Amino acid sequence: MRGNYKFLLLALLIAFASCSFTSKKFEDPDKDKLLIQLITYLLDQGHFDPKDINDDFSSNVFESYLDNLDPFKRYFYASDIKEFESYRDKIDDEIKAYDLSFFNLTHDRLLKRIAESKEVYTKILSKPFDFSVNEDYSADYEELTFVNSKKEMNERWRLQLKFSTIANYDDAISQQYVDLDGEESKSKTKKSTKKLESDAREATKKSLDELYDYIEDRRREDWFSVYINAIVEEFDPHTFYFAPEDKERFDRDISGKFEGIGARLQKKVDGIMVNEIISGGPAWRANELEVGDQILKVKQEDEKEALNVVGMRLDDAIKFIKGPKGTVVTLTLKKVDGTVQDISIKRDIVELEETYAKSSIVEKDGKKFGLINLPKFYINFEDYNKRNAASDIKQEILRLKEEGVEGLVMDLRNNGGGSLQTVVDIAGLFIEEGPVVQVRETGSAKEVLRDKDKSIVWDGPLVILVNELSASASEILAAAMQDYKRGIIIGSKQTYGKGTVQTVFDLNRMVRNNTNGDMGALKFTTQKFYRINGGSTQLEGVKSDVVVPDRYSYIDIGEKDQDNPLPWDKIDAADYKEWENYFDYDATINKSKARMATNEQLKLIDANAQWVKKIRDREIYSLNYEEYKKEMQINEEEAKRFSKLSEYQTNLTFNSLPYELKLMDKDTILKEKRNRWHVSLAKDVYVEEAINVLHDLKVSYGIKSTMINSVED
Prior knowledge:
The protein is α+β, with helices and mostly antiparallel strands. It folds into 3 domains: 51-180 and 189-234, no CATH class; 257-351, Pdz3 Domain (Roll), CATH 2.30.42.10; 353-702, 2-enoyl-CoA Hydratase, Chain A, domain 1, CATH 3.90.226.10. The chain has 21 helices and 24 strands. The longest helix has 28 residues, at 685-712. Residues 1-22, 178-187 and 702-713 have low confidence and may be disordered.
């Protein structure tokens, strides 16, 4: 089960970097030019499907880059675009020559236009809007053209700002009664429409001020990353350049842990604010830091003076607040009550609990079942033996077995994937041995990744829940269990459809005597993976055995809806043997389909999904308040049809495992999180059907086991 499969691709790439790259020197003193050299060389040598960097490639980069810079067409003028057009078919030549002329031109112009736009929105929002005028706002940004004059630009901004403000105004109308002094009072006064309109404009301005505060914090290198990614994403939607700070976030997200104080921070207009304390982390244990506190200064334990972080970029401030395990940081805070206070926190490893697998005991009609939710296939790339998804899932299964569960649900809904190694190991928990997934890179024979451990951790009934956002590693696991007929897949018509493998390569490995600082990393597609039956999950995803509607049913969110996806194909099947312990696998699927076809909750969910698509596809909005209100009321009336969705209640009971109950005695936040999760599960029609299927499989499994034992006896 836990094979010796290590990071073969990564090892090959490192060896490639150590040998092949040594013959080519990357030493340009200009960091931006050096970055282009590194990335284009690596993509040409290592990408699964290298692209010809030609005029067509150039034109595509031109379009996507400008769309990323100005998607709402409220910065650039038509004259700017006309000037940029001279580069449409020259970007390929600039890439090959490491020329930055196009980027420099667009970057300088963008900063100028952003500064101008701040003056525009400030001026527009200084005057009242007239919501009695009959005019419309179009949200079809793709059809917008760039404006020709300042007058047209002001008008575009005016309509966008009025649209934002009318929504704030409508919210304020619905909450007209307020305390004049902001304190508890029996005397409440109705605000005038003039005051409500003024407050609505102020709310719009505050939101934009916060956005522009973030924009102004962005450095040239941040904008250059946008340009680089417009280039690399032409190869496929999963090839991406990570600037140094982005790479750190990626490592944190995939491992689920980092070293620091355990607080999430947010940049606000008036400073850096604490917006969440991570349960179980150092700040949570110290119990002095509060949500809403503003961080003014940061002092390291080996320094005499504290560093003022007011006005600092959030990412820069975080660098000073985070630090190695065991070190102490002192924060000067403006507390929620207005007082200023110093607190000291010893840094530690912070685990992001929401990243990790969690399980629950499910009770129905006196029988126990297990449910495991896996948000992602997490791993520590530096040391696989540390906490990872496979070892955690194994542990949760063993704990559930101790409680006597008769069936298991693996919930992979919204799981976007993660480590290929962990999914191979997790599949091995459910089969005796055999292939799990096939991988292939251009010009090479396929490789079959298999479970080599004959032991089975869970040999009972298995159901896997998926939806349109189950991707990559989730699809590998679901596909393998489906091909083996080891488990029944319940969920969307198909999963996301990401059938490619990426590696993250540290660009600093390619540079000798680097004086340019951290070069970041490149995530790029190196392989495609295939089911053991030979079919690719690319674009097509995994088709559920039992299809059930959900909120995403009519929304285009899969791989096939992305730009530049790789095509679907197939290879020869691997040699594998289907699971034989189910007595009536197909009959169980048919029973489930019959139940789902008559389920009123699912019919309502399907109607709601169609309504959601209708709302999302709407592009024209009235800026006359009476008309706007009528439209909102129609939506509210339609929405009332779906209020019963939240009222649905199953007859299932959910309980945490004994080890978690002990933790909850000391961790009230964990207790609250699990209580909310269980309340949500108790309303979940998909989980309800998964338990029904387990019940059917359990009966058939037991029948076959009894028959086999009788024959053997």
